[in-house]
Amino acid sequence: MRKNQRQRDTPGPGQESVWDYPRPPRVENYPGVVVIEFGGKEIARTGSAVRVLETSHPPVFYIPHADFVQGSLQPVDGTTWCEFKGEAAYYDVAAGSARAERAAWTYPSPTAGFEVLAGAVAVYPGRMDRCLVDGEEVQAQPGAFYGGWITSRVVGPFKGPPGTWGW
Questions:
Q1: Cβ–Cβ under 8 Å, residues 118 and 126
Q2: Where is the region Disordered (predicted)?
């Protein structure tokens, strides 16, 4: 009943509602450990992630480029534009014989207020083998366009499924 409606789920102890996140989004440091696995290998691990919080979206985690295994991020042509963060550039993610096209992105010169994202990279968790936040496996935000990371610490409903585009 609620899946494609904007009826807010009530957060429990230790949880956040994505409906309490702001628009325009907010960027904040994340003090925990974030791990990305792809191609059967750990390609990134950091204790220096930041997350972007935006109304109706699960957090998007950005990891310092330096915390990715060398060669796992391969720049590709083409950019997109975010009304808040500016121009995004993309990477293919590679490990061994595995490759995920345009599965990661960065903001080389982010707009005012988002400068902390320069030098950081986000991935679509659904295109990786596994993404972990403090040891918990992440679920990907529904929909091919969004890159949110769903953990037990966030409640929705989340933008992404059919019928939610206008949220």
A1: no
A2: 1-25
